[in-house]
Design a protein that fits this description.
This protein is mostly helical. It is about 50% helix and about 5% strand.
């Protein structure tokens, strides 16, 4: 069964659901959240897996014929009746969370997502479809996550990262790092960029964030320079209609994994490897530098980063475009210019590119 969700610039959301193994009330729920909620395809898929696991767990705990089965995946749920959910209690839910913690080693975040999935599922059954009379998740509490300060690069480390880049595709990879460090966009947002998303006249670009929500990201001087430099060397085979901004060596949209490899390699070149930094940590870095050096308040940062909160949505609507533009302009990396490469570095790049073309086959994008 394929469920197609919102389409943005030709990028369809497709979910793979095993219809033959799911009861109708469960399939109806998945269809409901796919077409009515602003959830990403990944979130819907995770909800599907979480609820499916819960239904299997419920049968294992309640029905004797399944209690000796060690692997929950072997327990069928196709013939399960919605009436079995009528008697689910709050304690059943906590028992399930204990099971995924102890037996499946789920961490706080995974358990938190399962709680959100259960709440959504039982709310649908009780309030929307009236299939059960009571919602057992009303008093279900979210696990308290362990709070940890986000890791980020200092200004000096950020400059070192940009300056040390030595790549077979220098313009592309430098542009990728620059957008991460100045705009704080997500990995999925960068990979999903199309040429039509960039407005060079107004120095801004459109990105598709979590929940398929669009927002405008303003581009400072460093971002504009990096984009112009990259697009001048971005080449496509004759007749190609590829619209992605960032391309792989095969002239197709670059993959998330390839971008991660670009960042990992650049970090290693800057002697910053093995310290827990990643593409997402570059997003933390962008936000931290704006806040530390740009006199940017937390509410503006949330808008720049595309964080969503129902309690603050109305506050965000009155933020002017000039304030948002100032946020990226205020980054201390806004005017960073990389020193010209030496002849030795250029020769090294050519050697590296030759090796990359030979070795990349085992590490496809």
């Amino acid at each position: 069964m394929q469920l197609r969700g919102p389409n943005y610039e030709g990028r369809a959301i497709i979910l793979e659901i095993d219809r033959k193994q799911c009861p109708d009330f469960f399939l109806d729920y998945i269809l409901y959240i796919t077409v009515t909620k602003s959830l990403s395809s990944r979130t819907v898929q995770e909800y599907y897996l979480d609820i499916r696991l819960f239904l299997k767990y419920l049968r294992m705990m309640r029905e004797p014929q399944f209690q000796d089965i060690n692997d929950l995946q072997q327990i069928p749920i196709k013939d399960m009746s919605v009436s079995a959910l009528q008697s689910v209690t709050l304690q059943d839910l906590y028992n399930y969370l204990y099971y995924v913690t102890e037996e499946r080693e789920n961490h706080d975040r995974a358990r938190g997502r399962k709680v959100s999935a259960l709440r959504s599922f039982f709310r649908y059954l009780c309030q929307h479809q009236k299939l059960i009379s009571q919602d057992p998740t009303e008093q279900l509490e979210l696990p308290s996550p362990k709070k940890a300060l986000p890791r980020y690069l200092t200004l000096e480390q950020s400059q070192q990262l940009l300056q040390s880049l030595n790549s077979a595709y220098p313009e592309r990879d430098y542009c990728i790092l620059t957008l991460f460090l100045n705009c704080g966009i997500r990995l999925s947002e960068l990979v999903g960029l199309n040429l039509s998303d960039i407005n060079f006249k107004e120095a801004k670009m459109r990105v598709l964030g979590k929940g398929n929500k669009e927002r405008m990201v303003y581009l400072n001087e460093a971002c504009m320079d990096a984009l112009h430099a990259y697009l001048q060397v971005r080449e496509l085979p004759e007749g190609s209609a590829e619209t992605a901004v960032f391309l792989s060596k095969r002239h197709t949209r670059i993959s998330k994994r390839r971008v991660q490899q670009v960042v990992e390699t650049a970090l290693a070149q800057a002697d910053l490897g093995g310290q827990g930094f990643s593409t997402h940590k570059l997003r933390h870095t962008a936000a931290t530098l704006m806040y530390q050096y740009g006199n940017v308040d937390a509410l503006t940062l949330k808008e720049v980063l595309g964080h969503a909160s129902t309690s603050t949505t109305e506050i965000y609507t009155h933020l002017s475009n000039q304030i948002l533009k100032h946020a990226t302009d205020s980054s201390p990396l806004a005017h960073f210019e990389r020193n010209s490469q030496s002849q030795a570095e250029q020769e090294n790049n050519e050697d590296h590119e030759s090796k990359s073309e030979n070795t990349d086959i085992t590490n496809p994008e």
